[in-house]
Design goal:
By secondary structure, the chain is α/β, with parallel strands linked by helices. The protein has a single domain, classed as Glutaredoxin (3-Layer(aba) Sandwich). Helix content is 36%, strand content 23%. It is built from six helices and seven strands. A five-stranded mixed beta sheet has the order 5-4-3-6-7. Strand 6 and strand 7 form a beta hairpin. Helix 1 runs parallel beside helix 6. The model has no long low-confidence stretch (mean pLDDT 88).
């Protein structure tokens, strides 16, 4: 299964966060969703990316947008990561990589490391993919790319 493309309907997903179950259907018709996959809690680029989304979260919320982070880390790890960096959005544990596979956020190297690839999707209120950002080593490209994509939706 390849990566979903811009303009296509986003694959449905549901997963567990430390606050309970979350699914894409919860937001359809109500909010845009920034769904970002990242290799791991407390790693350098991932922390920078999470904090970047945290720092623009109020603007995103004001634009009817929710941020959801996804990695293979446990909900216990996510809970510590959220607390340490005061992240105002949920993180999903995708241990079996079901969500990551549906969104093409896996590759040979990430699979060998038991991680997911860094990739971000902006999904509009109708459930269509409005933007896709991929840059393994630049958190800034993901955060800025989300801002640019959402500006086009409003």
């Amino acid at each position: 299964m390849g990566k979903p493309r811009v303009g296509e309907t986003a694959p449905e997903f549901s997963g567990e966060s430390d606050g309970g179950k979350i699914s894409l259907a919860d937001y359809r018709g109500r909010k845009n969703v920034v769904l970002y996959f990242y290799p791991g809690d407390f790693t350098l680029v991932c922390t920078k990316e999470a904090c970047g989304f945290r720092d623009i979260y109020e603007d995103l919320k004001g634009a009817d947008t929710e941020v959801i982070g996804v990695s293979t880390d446990s909900n216990d790890s996510h809970k510590k990561f959220v607390a340490e960096y005061k992240l105002p959005f949920p993180l999903l544990s995708d241990k079996d990589k079901k969500i990551a596979t549906a969104y093409g956020a896996t590759n040979l190297i990430s699979d060998l490391l038991g991680r997911v690839s860094r990739i971000t999707y902006v999904i509009d209120k109708n459930g269509k993919i409005a933007a896709m950002l991929k840059s393994e080593l630049s958190a800034t490209k993901h955060v800025q790319g989300v801002k640019d994509a959402l500006a086009k939706l409003s």
